[in-house]
Design a protein that fits this description.
The structure is a single chain. The protein is α/β, with parallel strands linked by helices and 213 residues long. Helix content is 42%, strand content 18%. The protein is built from nine helices and eight strands. Strands 3-2-1-6-7-8 form a six-stranded mixed sheet. A two-stranded antiparallel ribbon has the order 4-5. The radius of gyration is 18 Å and the shape is globular. The relative contact order is 0.19.
Length: 213
């Protein structure tokens, strides 16, 4: 669907990353790429029941991510993890992109909108990817103390209400002519609620005859 005529006042376009700009979640791919092999092996045994609970809807995505990050990354040198994140952004993420949604992002840029990525994904790989594309990013940040990753997040995971809170902190939303938001899971609903036009899994929400972009 083509974009509407450029507005007189620039708009704001907010994009989730995993499952929205990509064809699938990237968190597990990065964990496999950056976690030491012995931790991957033990983690597969330890987290099997929790993962089954997640697939069944009994365990939240934010909880399992926090546990996996703590187990996989605690005590690792921050520089090594950032290097792994940079390599992942250069070599893996380009193969995971949904080109239809990347085109949508570029359409917003062409009409002069402010475009940003707002994601629960980890800063060590999402920040370098966004830097490559010239995009501001709001995302989950890993805590570092004395140059070591603690296995915890710096602040809250950037999901659910935290996404909306950080967006409101970053921009005066009343200054934009129109706000667009794109997401694919319940963790995006609070951000989508900020938008005049909210798209969930490619479909415009809250309108009769919802259409796919």
């Amino acid at each position: 669907m083509p974009m509407d005529r450029p507005p007189e006042t620039p708009g704001l376009a907010l994009f989730d990353f995993d499952g929205t700009l990509t064809v699938r979640e990237t968190f597990a791919d990065f964990m496999r790429a950056a976690t030491p092999s012995w931790r991957r092996y033990l983690g597969g045994l330890w987290f099997g029941p929790m993962y089954a609970g997640y697939k069944a809807g009994w365990v939240s995505g934010s909880r399992i991510r926090a546990e996996v990050v703590r187990f996989g990354f605690r005590g690792l040198p921050a520089n090594a993890l950032r290097a792994a994140g940079g390599a992942f952004a250069r070599n893996v993420l380009p193969t995971r992109l949904d080109m239809r949604m990347m085109q949508r992002l570029d359409d917003h840029r062409r009409r002069g909108d402010v475009v940003a990525v707002v994601s629960g994904a980890l800063d060590v790989y999402l920040q370098p990817w966004c830097a490559q594309h010239g995009l501001p990013v709001i995302c989950s940040r890993l805590q570092v103390v004395d140059r070591l990753v603690t296995g915890r997040y710096e602040g809250a995971q950037c999901v659910g209400e935290e996404k909306a809170r950080r967006v409101r902190a970053a921009w005066d939303l009343s200054s934009f002519g129109e706000i667009h938001a794109y997401g694919d899971t319940a963790e995006d609903h609070a951000m989508l609620a900020l938008a005049h036009r909210a798209y969930f899994r490619g479909r415009l929400m809250g309108a009769a005859g919802a259409r796919t972009i």
